[in-house]
Design a protein that fits this description.
The protein is α/β, with parallel strands linked by helices and 333 residues long. The protein has 2 domains: 135 residues, Nucleotidyltransferase, domain 5; 114 residues, ATPase, nucleotide binding domain (Nucleotidyltransferase, domain 5). Helices cover 42% and strands 16% of the residues. The chain has a 5-stranded mixed beta sheet. Strands 8-7-6-9 form a 4-stranded mixed beta sheet, with helices on both faces. The longest helix has 25 residues.
């Protein structure tokens, strides 16, 4: 598929009530006369939405809370609805437009059949939805619908490639049992180090000092009270602290970052083995991880063409066209 996205995100993602973002095509305060498409990227920390025209103009965007049904179906649905409404309002359109939208939706966790069924059983406010994993829409966005591979490094981690009709998935096993090299994993490792230091098993480090400041606590019991039973997104908020300490030459933090980066590099090498035309590193942790990756991987990475939520729109258009073709075929029989 050729690169047909005519407008890209620039600057911060606006919420409802903000002015139109730079690079978007304004829409008059009236009902649209063309079919509009909504792309949803639902991850463990936030849910992003983009409203696009049939000509692939970006009209509005919205960002809400966690959109991963694994960590709570009701919260994920609420985040999807909120981000969708924000995107519509950002485009200057009325909320009733939601019922006219064809939606492409990529959600973390829907590779598990029960979570897929739960989302598909939801009485959503849209015209129709096309549901896929967040990995598929991330790859479609990064490579504009063409074959390719992505290393996803955000709250969680996963590798995905789609080449010549064959799909390969690495990792994506969830936190805490998997997701090595993710924001949540880095945060958990930081908390573990804090507890070791407070038990006088490990020595004091800059990392421990910064995490204790971030938590505003002094004792191991206070640390446990704050972190026990918390979600992946909670632990992910400490990942930036790990990289801050590592970049300040804190050996403990450097060891943690090097371990996580080695895993991501090995994942990248496995994906390159599937011979994708392009491979991209995506996710909020990408810029922090990149300098620590193996030089071979860094030399192979290409900038993603579009974000995952745009990939979700491409997926929706693809599926809508397939449905239309099937309908025409049936009517011709």
């Amino acid at each position: 598929m050729e690169n047909v996205i005519t407008n890209q995100f620039e600057g911060k993602e606006p919420s409802a009530g903000q002015e139109h973002s730079a690079g978007k095509k304004p829409v008059a305060q009236q009902e649209p006369t063309e079919q509009l498409f909504l792309g949803i990227d639902g991850g463990g920390t936030k849910c992003k939405a983009v409203l696009m025209s049939s000509n692939n103009d970006i009209l509005g965007v919205g960002v809400s809370g966690p959109g991963n049904p694994v960590y709570g179906l009701e919260e994920a649905i609420q985040s999807i609805e909120n981000s969708a409404l924000m995107a519509v309002q950002d485009a200057g359109l009325d909320a009733k437009v939601l019922g006219d939208l064809i939606v492409g939706m990529g959600l973390a966790g829907v590779n598990v059949p029960s979570h897929y069924r739960n989302i598909m059983a939801w009485r959503h406010p849209f015209k129709n939805i096309h549901l896929a994993t967040d990995l598929l829409i991330a790859s479609m966005g990064a490579h504009n619908g063409s074959d390719g591979a992505v290393i996803v490094a955000g709250t969680g981690t996963c590798g995905f490639s789609y080449v010549a009709g064959k799909t390969s998935i690495l990792g994506g096993h969830g936190f805490p049992q998997g997701d090595k090299g993710s924001g949540a994993w880095f945060g958990l490792k930081a908390i573990e180090q804090v507890l070791l230091t407070l038990d006088n098993i490990a020595g004091p480090t800059l990392l421990v000092e910064l995490v204790l400041q971030q938590l505003n606590v002094k004792t191991g019991q206070e640390v446990v009270e704050q972190v026990v039973g918390k979600s992946a997104s909670f632990f992910a908020q400490f990942s930036a602290t790990v990289f801050t300490a590592a970049n300040s030459q804190d050996k403990t933090a450097m060891d943690i970052v090097q371990e996580g980066a080695k895993y991501i590099s090995e994942m990248g090498l496995r994906l390159i083995g599937t011979q994708p035309p392009r491979i991209s590193l995506i996710g909020g942790l990408g810029p922090s991880l990149f300098p620590w990756l193996d030089d071979v991987i860094k030399g192979q990475l290409s900038q993603p063409i579009s974000p995952p939520e745009v990939g979700a729109v491409l997926f929706a258009k693809q599926q809508s066209q397939l449905s239309s073709n099937v309908g025409l075929l049936r009517s011709a029989i």
